[in-house]
Q: What sequence folds into this?
């Protein structure tokens, strides 16, 4: 198709993912400097489980020696400097989701999230005060609350090549207008496919958000919503309406430290509105300074919104049947297969 896509070589070796995100999450290293932890059990907890690896304090690159469903009975808390790398297997998380609380440098790659239940249950919840996060090539659907929830001062985050489906409140950035500390938040969402989800692609309060090369179709209420002080830069995305024709929505709310209510701002550059879609843009208010992504990062790969891009996003987002690359990192010898990977630290023999 001739598309020039971002981070095309990250599957050449296991840890090539580190620092290859585009946008605000570009510095996320995950467990780059840690040993391998191999998930050998689909149990909710215990030695060899995903939860057991995620709670360890040291950096770890977490891989899987099994495929299947992990039924989470409670939120799975992810500690700092972790890569949860689902390449080479097919892992589905259900029941509850991942919680990234006061952590940094986390990479989540090639997982499925489906069927989360319970009050305030999100597939991936990022709050409070987490930073340098990259969520890549995940499939997310059918959770009780949101699919991705970013709030309470969490920032420097990228979401890329994810597939969102069968859901209502998709991505929330900024929980409510009382959290004025969310003015620091910065999020990039690119090359994602929002496939018939109803709203919040995303909904934003306070944050600076860069959307590029996403495909959003058949929403039920709106595509993107800007509220209190948010600045959304929408670049070369494809918006394809069904019954609801307006893509952009604005909601007026009052920040806790302000006397007057306001909405947010959306700037559209090179976006494609098809099937009768109306942008719904409002004029920029005089005196308002809208940020540009180039103020924060120097380069990113953006394609014109075309049929070729739409085809790619329909078929190459979400979980992928990708081989687990070899690990050339000096901490762990390269092995020919997952079953023969040598762990220098035998984590599953540590006491709880």
A:
């Amino acid at each position: 198709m001739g598309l020039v896509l971002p981070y095309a070589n990250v599957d050449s070796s296991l840890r090539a993912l580190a620092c290859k995100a585009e946008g605000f999450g570009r510095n996320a290293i995950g467990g780059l400097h840690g040993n391998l932890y191999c998930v050998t059990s689909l149990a909710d907890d215990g030695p060899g489980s995903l939860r057991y690896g995620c709670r360890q304090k040291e950096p770890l690159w977490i891989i899987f020696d099994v495929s299947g469903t992990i039924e989470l009975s409670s939120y799975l808390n992810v500690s700092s400097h972790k890569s949860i790398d689902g390449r080479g297997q097919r892992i589905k998380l259900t029941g509850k989701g991942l919680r990234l609380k006061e952590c940094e440098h986390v990479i989540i790659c090639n997982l499925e999230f489906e069927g989360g239940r319970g009050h305030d249950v999100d597939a991936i919840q990022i709050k409070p005060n987490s930073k340098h996060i990259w969520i890549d090539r995940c499939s997310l659907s059918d959770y009780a609350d949101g699919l991705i929830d970013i709030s309470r001062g969490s920032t420097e985050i990228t979401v890329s090549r994810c597939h969102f489906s069968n859901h209502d409140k998709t991505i929330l950035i900024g929980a409510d207008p009382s959290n004025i500390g969310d003015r620091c938040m910065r999020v990039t969402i690119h090359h994602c496919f929002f496939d018939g989800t109803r709203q919040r692609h995303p909904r934003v309060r306070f944050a600076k958000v860069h959307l590029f090369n996403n495909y959003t179709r058949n929403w039920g209420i709106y595509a993107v919503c800007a509220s209190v002080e948010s600045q959304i830069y929408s670049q070369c995305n494809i918006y394809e309406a069904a019954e609801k024709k307006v893509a952009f929505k604005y909601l007026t709310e009052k920040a806790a430290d302000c006397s007057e209510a306001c909405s947010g701002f959306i700037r559209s550059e090179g976006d494609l509105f098809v099937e009768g879609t109306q942008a719904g843009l409002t004029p920029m208010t005089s005196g308002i300074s809208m940020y540009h992504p180039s103020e924060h990062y120097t380069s990113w790969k953006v394609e014109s919104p075309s049929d070729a891009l739409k085809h790619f996003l329909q078929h190459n987002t979400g979980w992928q049947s990708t081989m687990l690359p070899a690990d050339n990192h000096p901490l762990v010898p390269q092995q020919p297969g997952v079953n023969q990977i040598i762990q220098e630290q035998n984590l599953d023999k540590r006491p709880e």
